[in-house]
Write a structure and sequence with these properties.
homodimer, mainly alpha, 3-stranded antiparallel beta sheet
Chain lengths: ~130, ~130
Amino acid sequence: MAKPTDDELAAAWHDLMGRYQRLTCTLDRELGTAHGLSASEFEVLQQLFLAPDGRLKMASLGERAHLTQSALSRLVTRLEADDLVARTSCRDDRRAVFAQITDAGRARYEEARPTQRRVLREGDCPAVLR
Amino acid sequence: MAKPTDDELAAAWHDLMGRYQRLTCTLDRELGTAHGLSASEFEVLQQLFLAPDGRLKMASLGERAHLTQSALSRLVTRLEADDLVARTSCRDDRRAVFAQITDAGRARYEEARPTQRRVLREGDCPAVLR
């Protein structure tokens, strides 16, 4: 395949931004309406659900959910208010703060997962992933 | 190619989110440092630069730059403060508001374009676009 020109790369990036943002918007709407979660909140619950013992250091969770620490902190505060996540600290290192998914958080994630998978299947995710 | 499973789609979407957000972050940093523009501001200037007569209706500009009308309105207000864009209205239909790139806006866009193209070329944009 010929190496793309700079303008072709820019056009492809522009196109990808659009598809990414439309899909994020659809996820926010569908997950919000049916399960009271944003796309980012779903990602955070998913990362915790998949982690051993359902917990991760905040720094590691931010990396995995692609969020800055300040955005993650606000998001975890919202999830704590709904009792879906709890912040805990480690006995050996009190400076390390963990986020821990609660039983209610696991239940909410498992309810929401089929909605997210349906949006990815039906939306333009396959096109995004081309 | 086998049809991806739902979990494969979800993993691919998660991976794409990360690459998209890292590239947006790099664009914000490099365009911000060198040219005082965010990635979104650059996109708006680019859409106006490419449009006939350098102007577009706000509604059309929002679609092309993948921004909601409220986000676009705030962004255009910032660009107006730097004299890079001007809002105009049409003599025949005063309800239609246009954004118009200024000469200073064209100059800033042309200065910033090589930076954006370099980030796309050097960053993981080719991987994003795979």
